[in-house]
Amino acid sequence: MKRQILHINKVIVTAIVVTMFFSCKNNFKEVQKIGVLQNQPIGEAKNINLKYTEAEDSIGRVVANLESPKMLDYSNREFSFSEFPEGVRLSLYDEDGRKNIVLADYAIVYNATDLIDLQGNVILVTPQNDSLFAEQLYYDQSREWLFTNLPVQLKSSTSNSGRGDIFDSDSKFKNYTILEGRGDMILKD
Question: Residue 62: which CATH number?
Fold first, then answer.
């Protein structure tokens, strides 16, 4: 009798161990799938139109407007961001409603820092029809500031045109600086 109970206990223990072994293997596959999903965007939007406003006497004034055919939302990451793989059109407005337009082939908006990284055939056009051409340009939304440390070219209808390796400007493009890599100043308007 004791031998039969001992045998039954061994069978039960073996069944539990085998069940746990197979269930752990399945859970590991599920965990692997979760890891893959975390590297994928949590959402995708098409034909978006994002507006960044600033409160003035309880009325929100549009400071920036970002438009894109496609946005990928990676807010499921620790350092969350939104990616615009098909390009963007960024309009930056001054207090009088005049806008500077920035076009780029690709962009990333980092949510924690309010920084927009514009890449590929970046073009900035002012209301005075001045144009800045760059391969990469950053826009700091909270400071309303544009900058890059890559080559830029300015074509201006109102002042001197120029080239440089460093660009720094307010979002209204009223106070800008273009410098060569050596630090020699080329333009300041």
Answer: 2.60.450.10
Say if residues 152 and 163 touch (Cβ distance below 8 Å).
yes
Overall pTM surpassing 0.85 (yes/no): no
Q: How many angstroms separate the CA atoms of 129 and 123, rounded?
A: 12
Q: What is the pLDDT of residues 31-51, one digit of tens each?
A: 544 555 567 889 999 999 988
- 30 and 108 together in one domain: no
